[in-house]
Records
---
Amino acid sequence: MGIEDALGEKILTWTDRFQNFFVKECDDFTSRPRWRPGIDVFGWYDEGYEIIYKLRARFPDVQVKPQFARYVFSVNERREHAGLLPISLPGKPKAGHICISDLLRGSERNRAQGPAKS
């Protein structure tokens, strides 16, 4: 395929670590995928990009597209990185949502306690 031995070994080691430590993707939008203890997940992610850069340099006419962020970051983290709003299921609070009744209850509590002391 034209990949030098050192890069080939790096790819094999990187994928072996994935096979040995990755547990599962999560079914919600906010949880990060699960990994077994004993691996620096963000280091694995960074190493993946090092491999991508080397492959792009080696094969400039080929589109080498990384698809491994989903194994490290939650759906909403990836959406935020892409400049998109987070997703939430119907009936679940949205990011930045403040419930007006909680706000009113807090205001009533503050009035009952009297003025703040400095």
---
Amino acid sequence: MRRFSVLLGVCALLVGAAASANDDWRKSAPMDKKVDNLVQVMPGAANLMIEMGFRYQNLYWAAKQGKWEFAQYQAEEMEALLKTLMITRPKRAKTAEVFLKTGFAALEPVLKARDLPRFEAGFEKMRQACMTCHQQNEHAFVTLPLPKRAYSPVLNMD
């Protein structure tokens, strides 16, 4: 939630910087105008999914490397992103909630078990649930292969 608040604050500053010093909507506009402006700069699903992709890759490789705490952290951050999506894009809330309860829920027990074969099965279930969610949101063209690499330096230091 802190990340969301920071992003919201940065967006508000960028929008505010475009206004003249004498016409700062953040200070002078009525509350409904302030809310309208903030709603317009809320991150879209595409923005959140970029970070989700990084976390997806890092989750996979953290488990493959036996870095279970880092894998758990990635899963927690993915869940937080989905909860942010449910707030910022209410149209996507229902499918995100179904995803959290079905495909994503399979990860928690396998991450706690620290068992790679079980993780691989749980990850595959989650991956398929991701693509089902994409289809339900008219983005079937967004398919997810198994990650070939991780983006985090934590996972790329040999």
---
Amino acid sequence: MKKVLLGNEAIARGAWEAGVVFASAYPGTPSSEILESLTQYKEIQAEWATNEKDALMAAAGAALTGARAMASMKHVGVNVAADPLMTLSYTGIEGGLV
């Protein structure tokens, strides 16, 4: 049966279908619903972070251990996560990081 999903619900569903097992996020409209939607999937450990940098670092840590991971934040929060984002491009990620 087909189900109609909102955009953030579709992102969560796509992450689940892709095998994401860890997700971290910093709350902020319009992206807060992504992590909230991820909590419906028992296979995914979803947790809030204290800021966007911590969300990315937590997801990166999971990905470095071989897990598929995801970090979500609103667009203006990417500047807070910019330093680790640039550094991560030089590291070898074993799992997968979105």
